[in-house]
């Protein structure tokens, strides 16, 4: 018998949080955050982190468990999420994976093997080149040998760019092809993979509103505190949207107005990339908000119907 798993994802600011609470309560679920930023303590406003008062008694996992100077990547996420799932299943509950990091979700749903070798001379050479020649140069090198990976990996994600180049140099094979093969593996779970989406104009409007609200709630002060704690631009945590832009303002690189404009633009681009990712994923069930008159209630009913058909719930 495959273990049950429910996935609820979608672009940033689409409204996953409220729906995930209603869903978890309806199915007897516990939520595992598939978010690369909410895992960090002290990073509440910029990550749009759910507050304990909003959880309505639903247990949440992988939120506020690491300090901002700790490493967090897909392998660590996979380990932590699997451990959380074991606990949830032992309590007779259903894991509900919620968040917008498609790569993390894919790692769990397909149980992708990311086993890595110890850093060898090839990786050390690439790390040296990244330091000397910069992220853009390294990304251009990846474009030459694996354009598919270059399209999906942002040039600032130096770690993944290096990993993709290292994989190619060591195996002569593109990591994008390897990942595609991994994706074809059958899932060890009886899962339902829901993607909540909305009209592009409405989504972009909500993104702008959310950023304005974050600024009113004290985003600048939050980043200032992180800076005082020793958080710097090179850290994985400080590469998150909302953090790198405000940090640039605090470092005197740009004005606050410029930082906010860049943040709004980049968040819109991020939402667009998220939708593109989910469109490429097999077995997804799209929930377009515009198709439902009474949004949350009707969407939830539609999800429960699918879950009964898949025998994930009774």
Describe the protein in words.
The protein has helices at residues 16-27, 74-90, 102-109, 121-133, 135-145, 147-152, 158-171, 175-183, 200-217, 219-228, 243-250, 256-280, 295-309; strands at residues 3-9, 29-33, 60-61, 94-98, 189-197, 284-288. It is of the alpha/beta class. The chain has two domains: 3-112 and 185-309, 3-Layer(aba) Sandwich (Rossmann fold); 121-182, Histone, subunit A (Orthogonal Bundle). Strands 3-2-4-1-5-6 form a six-stranded parallel β-sheet, with helices on both faces. 36% of the residues are buried.
Features of this protein?
2 domains, Rossmann fold, alpha/beta, 53% helix, Histone, subunit A, globular
What would a concise description of this structure say?
The protein has 13 helices and six strands.
């Amino acid at each position: 018998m495959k273990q049950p798993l429910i996935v609820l994802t979608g672009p940033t600011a689409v409204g996953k949080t409220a729906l995930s609470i209603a869903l978890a309560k309806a199915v007897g679920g516990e939520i595992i955050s598939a978010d690369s930023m909410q895992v960090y303590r002290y990073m509440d406003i910029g990550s749009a982190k759910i507050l304990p008062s909003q959880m309505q008694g639903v247990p949440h996992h992988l939120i506020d468990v690491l300090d901002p100077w700790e490493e967090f990547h897909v392998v660590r996420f996979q380990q932590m999420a699997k451990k959380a799932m074991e606990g949830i299943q032992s309590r007779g509950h259903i894991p509900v994976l919620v968040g917008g990091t498609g790569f993390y979700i894919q790692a769990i749903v397909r149980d992708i093997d990311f086993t890595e070798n110890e850093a060898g001379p090839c990786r050390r050479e690439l790390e040296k080149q990244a330091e000397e020649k910069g992220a853009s140069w390294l990304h251009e090198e990846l474009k030459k040998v694996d354009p598919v990976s270059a399209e999906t990996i942002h040039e600032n994600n130096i770690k993944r760019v290096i990993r993709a180049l290292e994989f190619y140099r060591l195996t002569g094979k593109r990591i994008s092809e390897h990942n595609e093969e991994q994706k074809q593996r059958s899932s060890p779970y009886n899962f339902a993979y829901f993607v909540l989406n909305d009209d592009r104009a409405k989504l972009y409007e909500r993104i702008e509103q959310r950023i304005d609200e974050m600024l009113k709630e004290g985003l600048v002060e939050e980043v200032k505190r992180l800076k005082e704690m020793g958080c710097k631009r090179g850290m994985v945590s400080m590469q998150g949207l909302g953090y790198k832009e405000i940090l640039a303002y605090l470092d005197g690189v740009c004005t606050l107005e410029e930082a906010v404009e860049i943040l709004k633009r980049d968040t819109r681009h991020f939402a667009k990339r998220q939708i593109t990712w989910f469109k490429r994923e097999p077995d997804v069930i799209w929930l377009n908000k515009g198709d439902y008159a009474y949004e949350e209630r009707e969407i939830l009913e539609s999800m429960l119907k699918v879950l009964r058909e898949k025998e994930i719930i009774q």
